[in-house]
Write a structure and sequence with these properties.
single chain; alpha/beta; Rossmann fold; 2 domains; three-stranded parallel beta sheet; 40% helix; binds ligand BQF
């Protein structure tokens, strides 16, 4: 069993990007600049957005965090987005999800200039991804592809089961892995909350991408020997023995699944850090594309 060490690979990628940034700066080019909008004070969202800002500092990017109160209206948020769309100093920006319930997420994502949409959530970029045109790939699926590639995990002709159909992970992952690409050429099945005989389907999988958001849902009896496991889940589970009061759990029951797996991502330290690294990669790409 090999651990797919997302922490290590993400650090490799960040170092590669840092080298690129130094070269750009030495050539008198602009420094990549990522902005992030956070609405409200949700604990997990604050952690994620802070991790993104910190990663920018580490690799020599400029970053701007725009902190808006929970009560921010949709109109004010759309104004902020317009400002970032037209600010030539910003190469790319994200709106941290989830948004408060009074704001229409789809409307917000559609307001982002596709050329600055480094999360790849704008319908234009989703369409470009589906058509295999140059775009910004959503950071989590992009990170999973990169992790599979760097560990030389064979995907061609394999049965991949994607658990979950979210617009951020499951759906794009299923599209990307069915495409003709390095970590692609797979036969992909998407399973979800309405799927019947789910365990029969997961037991036939060579590779499982678990992205359903239910902690430790996938257990050893649901997988075959030699399976490759990508665990996208990241749930806070109350744990009084931890100083934070919680521990992080994936969608995979690591204890029962890992003995059967050929490769498996841990939680934390698997897919999560790769998500951050690929957001930075997209921002570098945005800077290069803007010329
Ligand atoms: C790690 C996210 C659900 C909803 C919105 C490192 C992250 C997580 C874990 C991280 C996530 C999850 C992010 C680890 C960004 C991944 O060491 O295991 C980094 O920051 N993520 C997000 O921005 O929004 C989310 C999950």
């Amino acid at each position: 069993m090999t651990i797919l060490d997302g922490k290590k690979v993400s650090n490799d990628i960040k170092e590669e990007i840092a080298v690129e940034v130094s070269k750009m700066v030495a050539n008198g080019e602009k420094t990549p600049h990522l902005a992030a909008i956070l609405v409200g004070t949700d604990g997990a969202s604050m952690t994620y957005v802070n991790a993104k800002v910190k990663a920018c500092e580490k690799i020599g990017f400029n970053s701007t965090l725009i902190d808006l109160p929970e009560e921010t209206t949709e109109a004010v948020l759309l104004e902020k987005i317009q400002e970032l769309n037209t600010n030539d100093d910003i190469d790319g920006f994200i709106v941290q999800l989830p948004l408060p319930k009074h704001i229409d997420e789809q409307k917000v994502l559609m307001a982002i200039d596709p050329d600055k949409d480094v999360d790849g959530f704008h319908p234009t970029n989703v369409g470009r991804m589906a058509l295999d045109l140059p775009t910004f790939l959503p950071a989590t699926p992009f990170g999973i592809l990169e992790l599979l590639e760097r560990y030389d995990v064979e995907t061609s002709g394999k049965n991949v089961v994607v658990m979950g159909r979210s617009h951020i992970v499951g759906r794009p992952m299923s599209i990307l892995m069915s495409q003709k690409r390095k970590a692609g050429d797979a036969t992909v099945t998407v399973v979800h909350s309405r799927t019947k005989n789910l365990a029969d389907i997961t037991r036939s999988a060579d590779i499982i991408v678990a992205a359903i958001g239910i902690s430790e849902y996938l257990t050893g009896d649901m997988v075959k020997d030699g399976v490759v496991i990508i665990d996208v889940g990241i749930t806070r589970v109350p744990d009084e023995t931890k100083k934070a009061g919680y521990r992080l759990a994936g969608d995979v029951d690591f204890a029962s699944v890992s003995p059967k797996a050929s490769y498996i991502t841990p939680v934390p330290g698997g897919v999560g850090p790769m998500t951050i690294a690929m957001l930075l990669k997209n921002t570098l790409l945005a800077r290069e594309r803007h010329g």
